[in-house]
Amino acid sequence: MKKFGTGAIHFFLITVSIVSLFPFAWMLIGMTNSSAEVIKGKFSFGAEFSNNVAKLLEMTNLGTAFWNSTLIAVVGTIATLILSSMAGFGFEIYRTRGKDRLFGVLMLSMMMPFAAIMIPLFRMFSKMGLLDTPAAAILPSITTAFMIFFFMQNTKSFPRELLQAGRVDGLNEWSLFARVYMPTMKPTYAAAAIITFMNYWNNFLWPLIALQSQDKKTLPLVVSSLSSSYSPDYGVIMVAIVVTTLPTLLIFFLLQKQFVQGMLGSVK
Amino acid sequence: MKKRVSLLLLGTVTASLLAACGSSETTNTSGGTSNTTEPVGEAKQKVVAWAWDRAFNGGALDIAKELYAKDHPGFELEIVDMAKVDLEQKLNTNLASGVKGGLPDILLVNDPNIQKYVASYPGTFAEFTNKVDFSKFSPFKVDALTVDNKVYGVPFDIGVTGMFYRSDYIEQAGFKAADLENITWDRFIEIGKVVKEKTGKYMITMNPNDESLTSILLQSAGSWYITPDNKGNFVDNPAMTETLRVYKAIADAGIAKPVTGWSEYVGSFNSGDVATVVSGVWQVTGIMEAKDQSGKWKVAPIPKLNIDGAVNASNEGGSSWFVLEGSANKEAAMDFLATTIGGSSEFYERFLKEKGGVGSYIPAFSSEAYSQTSDFFGGQAIYTDFTKWSKEVPGISLGMYTQEAKDSLKNELPNILNGADLAKSLANIQKLFEQQVQ
Amino acid sequence: MNSKLTRSNLMGWQFVLLPSIIIVLFSFYPMIQSLFLSFQSGRGNVYHYSGMDNYVRLFGDPMFRQAVWNTLLYLVVQVPLMLFLGLIIAYFLNIPKLKFKGFYRTAIFLPCVTSLVSYAVLFKSIFAVDGVLNGMLLSIGLIHEPVVWLMDPVWARVVIVVAITWRWTGYNMIFYLSAMQNIDSSVYEAASIDGASKMRQFFSITVPMLRPIILFTAIISTNGTLQLFDEVVNLTNGGPGNSTMTISQYIYNLSFVYTPNFGYAATVSYAIVVMVAVLAFLQLKVGGEKK
Hints:
The complex is a heterotrimer.
Chain A: H1 2-30, H2 35-39, H3 49-59, H4 62-93, H5 97-107, H6 114-127, H7 134-138, H8 145-155, H9 161-168, H10 173-184, H11 186-202, H12 205-210, H13 219-227, H14 234-266
Helix pairs in contact in A: 3-14, 4-8, 4-11, 8-11, 8-14, 9-10, 11-14, 13-14
Chain B: H1 2-30, E1 45-51, H2 57-71, E2 75-81, H3 84-96, E3 106-110, H4 114-120, H5 139-145, E4 146-147, E5 150-151, E6 154-166, H6 167-172, H7 185-199, E7 204-206, H8 212-220, H9 238-252, E8 256-258, H10 262-270, E9 276-280, H11 283-288, E10 297-300, E11 315-323, H12 330-339, H13 345-355, H14 362-365, H15 368-371, H16 382-390, H17 402-417, H18 422-436
Parallel strand pairs in B: 1-2, 1-3, 7-8
Antiparallel strand pairs in B: 3-11, 4-5, 6-9, 6-10, 6-11
Chain C: H1 2-37, E1 40-43, E2 46-49, H2 53-59, H3 62-93, H4 101-109, H5 116-126, H6 132-139, H7 153-181, H8 185-193, H9 198-209, H10 211-226, H11 230-235, H12 247-257, H13 262-288
Antiparallel strand pairs in C: 1-2
Subcellular location (chain A): Cell membrane
GO biological process, one term (chain A): transmembrane transport
Protein name (chain A): Lactose ABC transporter permease
């Protein structure tokens, strides 16, 4: 009876895993097939891989787009982590009624659909002279209420004795944050880094508006323009999708252990 | 100590800002934006253009640039390509926020959007009325560009329609080429039933999410979803009633293969699933993708609606080049477009030969490029035929609210296909449309 | 003591000030501008003050009603489905002796690292009429005619629900899994001794202990679903008819597809804000109780 139960659980989990991984398999296979074969739903590896890669490199400025995406995602992630953890630290460690209220108000910022604030935001960035710069893609999501909340939750399990010990050693609050809090919270930072990096890397609507010239484009913009030409080449698009997906996969695998640990803290 | 840490924190934030400011300067000098301070008329200036298919309309600009550079050495053009919807969205955001800095000098506009843009953003687009000899272009194309007797932009590619068909399937079903020339849609459906029965192949594809077929039918009768004064054109419009009757008849006859997107649509004829494709001339490239079908294709005029004023010709898609009034390189951009795409037969010959694109520039029609025969189409001089049909396409005003009208129709289409009373459905659509454009 | 508290209070403001200013600048300032815009009407860049006209129009707008209906349908079907699935998976992955846990966890989490643009292209090609899914179903004999997934009002909605569930179940699952690992295993041991079945343990121990995190994911998912946009635009573009169109897509159409009316678009946006706020409040009332 018990054997049967475990078997059923494995069956269920394998099914879910297959469903989860299927689109990944589909893009890896698609990458090696011609456009016509992708459209026909051919589910086996083909011989078009090098051909597709060559076409992609010829059709787009992939290297530049990759660099732009990397710059925006890396700088954006670092800045977001610092700012959001500062706020999370401040809101939780020095908790007062006033700060709780402020945080409640900040949470409201998550409720507005982005399309609705896009035009005022665009006008603002134009006045600041930042359009068509990586800063324009980075700044609007450089601190989010969600990330602050995430850090607050994790900070609940932060051992406050460490702060007290630090104060005794003569450290001021900023050094406590940088030298005690930050190192202790490494797993939280790892989890936050994955989520933030993913958001920056995959962001589409705002970079589309804020970045203007060809040499500033990010990878999702390249994929989008490829898939809407009059005669889209799906083999080539699949290569572009794989290139776009790989870095987030890589980051996830690298930080996976810390990620799971970090998520643990967020729910205490 | 305290200072150092906070400085570090602030430093990281401001560093990204500073880095950004630095790069914003470089963009300005490189001409990524149009508010460059370089004097107009000087040899070194870079015109920026937005287009949405690097190979096709971007490629056309490459040709134009090459031609133009012969007399204008030093002319520089940067082509920024993006998805069509992305381009429209960027344009709207820029114009609505009154920010000119991010806009290009030249931009490609889909013809149904022309009136909408000109009316929504007055004074934004440069007028070409006396810069180009518009009498040399097909009248229906110039009509689409004209607002209050002013012409905004240079006509570019057209989508004069034809009925591409697989001659082998048609023969197998017992018909000859002549049986497909200048027929009505009802005859088309009859033939389709025979084809389905004898060959097992579908006659045509159908995608209820895409309004291209209804648009083709309407324009072939000189009608459109909206009237020239931007009112809904659903009620008391024989062309609309007939269009929807035909549409439903095709669906009911079981001769249409359902497709849900562009790739499936192209896939359906590339893999030989359908006997005909009713589409714009630009579809030639798509059809020729299937190299193994060479010699099996032909093209005939599209069937016509069974009402007065309907013809066997229509148009699907097409776009035009606009120049922004406020652009720093306005004069250079206008001159560039007017002398190449607006008045060079050579441009259109090369555009056809190299990109398979067809324009509406009449002097080019008699050139050798347009009279070539195609082995893929069984030796037919397809472009001679297409240009002949292009002169018959009824000119219509596309108006401002085409998309709203199409979406209102789309809302009711499932009911119509399910057999709801057509008159009642049309009244519903008209009402919905009026609510949408208040 | 008191002075120390004040000092610590002040110290705290140092940390929260800059991040708060940034959120005010990049979120609230544009939101307020949008609010002003919602009292104006016009097209493109030609506007006039129109008072409450946009709000009156909103209540009589059949397209808006359709969009709200569609969005709520996704909300009611998809959010509970996804959260429940995430919970079950997390519960299984939390079984101490289960093998291949790491593999399952990674596999199920992976979908959420894909970009929206990419996953839309992938799903569209998988669910095409001649696509790989129909091909497989046909070859194993489950269906005899290809299913026209994206053109049938019911199937199109199913595909969208499947797509969102595919992408976000793993994300929620990780939250649950982390929370479950915090539950002391002795609680389960005690329950087992008392003879409570696994199923019983799940509903009477796991779910109640996870209440705060379930509430949290429910609010986040509700918010996400009410703003649902990319999936629908890319997979069905709102069709067939307008049967899959969401409120966010309607806002987008009003701004960028139709003759632009940013004033009315802003009005529709505020309808979303109100809906999110009300639902979040209800969820807190129903699920919060403590604290």
